[in-house]
Amino acid sequence: MADPKALRDKTCVVGIGETAYTRGTTKSPLQLSMEATMMAINDAGIKPSQIDGVVLPNGHNGGATAGDYAANLGIKDLIYTASFPEMGGAQMVSAMEGAVLALASGICDYVLVPHCSYFYTGARARDMTANPSNALQAAEYIRDYYRPFGVGAPPQHYAWMAQRHMHLYGTTQEQLGAVAVAMRKHAQLHPNAIMRGKPMTMADYMASRWITWPYKLLDCSLETDGAGAFVMTTAERAKDLKQKPVYVSGIASGHPYPPHDIPNRPDILEIGLDHSAPRAYAMAGVKPADIDFAEIYDCFTGQAILQIESAGFCKKGEGGPFCENGNIELGGKLPVNTHGGLLSQAHNTSMNHVIEAVAQLRLGCGERQVKDAELGVVTGWGGHGHGSIAILRN
Amino acid sequence: MNTNVHDDYQLPVLQGTAKEFYTYCKAHDLRFQRCAQCKTFRHPPRPLCNKCYSFETEWAPVKGTGKVYCWTVAMAPIGKAWVSYMPYAAVVVELDEGPRVATWVTGIPPDQLKVGMPVKVWYDELTPEVTLAKFKPL
């Protein structure tokens, strides 16, 4: 049997691209996706037709299929395609894992991972999670067993977890707020952040309206439009390319159990990342203490706290205090979401987290640069707690 | 531009195992799917027992008593139909026999809910076809 550690640093991200994030757009998801794709391909310095693998995180990318990419990019022999729709927001890092496997096994040479989120102009998240036609396993259960009780939107399912965390560990509203405030601070430093120019204090957070206790409006991620893309290849091929490669040192996906229903998990705070994080660290041969920054899937503040714990940055239950006192802000112990995250940059289903991690490891982030960054983590969360993690290095 | 699937009071789709579950609810008889071989409860229903791998199932009655496991208090409507109910607590109740359900605990303000609070089922006859199993403090 092969050893997963053999995958360490064998593949890398060599191109990134991202459109402007907006609330509302006249462009189609296909148009936005192709714009981001061409930025990433040009950033890598390869010809579009050199792409021979397309991993579409959610399978259709707001209307664009792998075939659309082949047609637009002039790929006459598309060798590998894959998608990970059931992973929800964890799909971006799982897509990266798919790309790693396709490249390391020699199946293909250059893999494109594009993603468009159309959350402002298109269907809302609540429509997708409760609609079985979207092929999410949990959707039928939500429709038949939760929604008759007025539970049908992601903040509600996830607030159950936050309430449980508060009950067991004494996590406070202000600790949730500390996550939101840190993300907003970071967004002030990113030119492509929806909330740039709109600073927010803890008092603003506490005054924001309730959505579903214990979540306030400012505990919830943004609904925005925009696309991003990244290009990956092998470490060997990357030597001849334009950009300094960012290597995938460790990568893994994991699932809560049972995955399809939050209430009936023996412990609703045991999440997919609890399973995947140890595998990723083992592959990379590093420890959480070695990590310089983390881009954490912050769909809601409480979910960011859960993942900070499960990614090993503190013990279970200590995530609330860990996020206080500027600890997760630039200059703190572990800068988290240096771009502002889903809470304050944009909701691109963590494509923006991957792109920010790569940008940080290229050391080109200007005033929001994590000094001397060498190792960064990206997590994904979705589909009720699936969890993926990538450990990247320069 | 945005659609909203929650604008109407959303009823379960009465087909397959959901139809069976709600048919018992209509008779004020709370039952859960249970493996007919090893007698392990499971909810929501699914085809295969993950303990003994039997496909044989039965609908087993429960006492209707349980405890509050966790909750959230909805204060923004997920659809127009929910405006008049707000704020309401959407509670996860753990039945004494093991299964947990998403439900409401009525007869108590949301801010007085406590984890572990004992509750008992009552039946809300929402429509001629659909009765929801809700709970109240014991």
Question: What would the principal axes of the Cα set say about the shape of chain B?
Answer: globular
* Principal-axes shape call of chain A: globular
- Rg of chain B to the nearest angstrom? 16 Å
State the total count of DSSP E strands of chain B.
8
Specify the oligomeric state.
Answer: heterodimer
* Count, helices of chain B: 1
Strand content of chain A: 15-25%
Uncertain segments of chain B are: none
Proportion in β-strands of chain B: 35-45%
**Chains forming the largest contact:** A-B, 42 and 43 residues
Averaging pLDDT over every residue of chain A, what do you get?
A: 94
Query: Low-confidence stretches of chain A at least 5 residues in length (pLDDT < 50)?
Result: none
Overall number of structural domains of chain A:
1
Question: Which CATH class of chain A?
Answer: Alpha Beta
Overall SS class of chain B: mainly beta
Provide the number of structural domains of chain B.
1
CATH topology of chain A, by name, is Peroxisomal Thiolase, Chain A, domain 1
Name the average pLDDT of chain B: 93
Helix content of chain A: 25-40%
